[in-house]
From TrEMBL:
Name of this protein: Uncharacterized protein
Species of the source: Endomicrobium trichonymphae
Pfam family, one: DUF6996
Domain DUF6996: 9-85
Highest taxon above the source species: Bacteria
Domain DUF6997 stretches: 88-255
Amino acid sequence: MSRSESCSRAWLKICEDWKILEHAFNKSPFILNADQIKKSCQKFKKTSEKEVRILCKQDTREKRPDIFISNNLFLLPVKNGCYNIIKGEGYVDIPKINMGTKIYSSKLDFILDTSKIGNSEMQHLDYAYASSLIRTFMNDNSLVLTIRGRKYTPSFSFTINKQKINVKSVQTEVDAGYEGKEQVVLIEAKSFEVANIIIRQLFYPYKQWQKTTNKKIVILFFEKSISSNTYSIWQFEFINPDDYNSIKLIRSESFKIVE
């Protein structure tokens, strides 16, 4: 049984036990906690069928369990061990970049040897930053690395389908954050191609760092393609900072770095 099948089997049991599909999603999200998930899945043998962290990791539309897909549902963490199940669109497309790949000349005057070892998201981001690609894309030479890794959010609220969602102390992860004189650039990175991502990965850090600075918060999605050796960047914006679904693609470009 694949991970996807295990996840779907577990969530079918969870939905049946707690009568989730009987909930009036047009009025409010369904609130579910980790203890309920554990109780429903306690007799399953596989880790992928009972581990809360694995069951709740639904980073793309396709990673959702079958019962979520067929009922147009998605999951958001709202505090430690507590989740909201919401009906609607929780993901944003990462469209193909149809414009040609630009050749970008590294601003470094020497060749980096260590950056070529491995295939991690942070490694590719660090190389793009060291080559000044991030600064060039943002047209901001003042950007310096100031944010990285996992942190817990302060309390904040927002709306989805006019329903208010309250978040408190949820763990977020920013692959890299760069602060300049007038803006803070937050980046979610992947070392493989994806067609979509859950908006939460962009929105929660955006809301989190809005609480810390009055500077403009810019959201980027970054992808390194191993097959084509290209670095692609998408810039998104939340038209309404308090509306999860107000996300809009501003621009995107693909680059090949030459040393």
